[in-house]
Design brief:
The protein has 162 residues and is an alpha/beta fold. It has one domain: P-loop containing nucleotide triphosphate hydrolases (Rossmann fold). Helix 1 crosses helix 2 and helix 1 crosses helix 5. The radius of gyration is 15 Å and the shape is globular. The structure holds adenosine-5'-triphosphate (ATP) and magnesium ion (MG). The site of adenosine-5'-triphosphate (ATP) has 18 residues, from helix 1, helix 2 and strand 7.
């Protein structure tokens, strides 16, 4: 399945892309996010929460210490951060498998830490290009996330054109 690459030119644009990503969700899905410090992961996650209708007064931050944050929206959003986990078993201890099989949307930051246990979902890789430009690469690992990616592309292309 081919990659889709977008370059955003501001934090607002990354948030808007995240918002479209949330809007594109029509069933439980899994987002596998990776990128270095300052790549814009939290920025994208904030937009995503907005697109899932998580109320704006709920601040979205990386669950680096809490390991998982939960938000109520059109779908419940379960936001994991693997930064401080040392082995894939720790992820299972958090009940990760049940969240993925459940009715909510799961977002994983630092997903590239344990690629061997994350074999379905939508991979999102963020890279720093310059002070205000970020290169964001999407790759679906299975057919249902390919459908999600197609919906995102359509929304983005329409939104850009208007
Ligand atoms: N195009 C862009 N997209 C996203 N963020 C941008 C962009 N241009 C500049 N920035 C800035 O880059 C920073 C991204 O921070 P953010 O907290 O989202 O990164 P992060 O990947 O979550 O980092 P960390 O791993 O440290 O939590 C913010 O200060 C933001 O204003
Ligand atoms: Mg962050």
């Amino acid at each position: 399945m081919p990659d889709w690459i977008v370059t955003t030119r501001s934090p607002e644009e990354t948030r808007r892309l995240g918002n479209f990503l949330g809007q594109a969700v029509e069933r439980p899905v899994l987002f596998l996010l990776s990128g270095d410090l300052g790549a814009g992961k939290t920025c994208l996650a904030q937009g995503l929460a907005g697109g899932l209708d998580v109320p704006e007064d709920e601040p979205v931050t990386s669950p680096t210490y809490t390991l998982m944050n939960q938000y109520k929206g059109r779908f419940d959003l379960f936001h994991f951060d693997l930064y401080r986990l040392s082995q894939p078993e720790d992820l299972l201890d958090l009940g990760f498998d049940e969240y993925v099989g459940g009715p909510g949307v799961v977002l994983v930051e630092w997903a590239d830490r344990f690629p061997e246990v994350l074999q379905e979902g939508l991979l999102i890789r963020m890279d720093w290009e310059s002070v205000d430009r970020r290169r964001i690469r999407f790759k679906a690992l299975d057919e249902s996330h390919e459908t999600l990616l197609e919906r995102l592309k359509n929304l983005w292309e329409k939104g850009e054109g208007s």
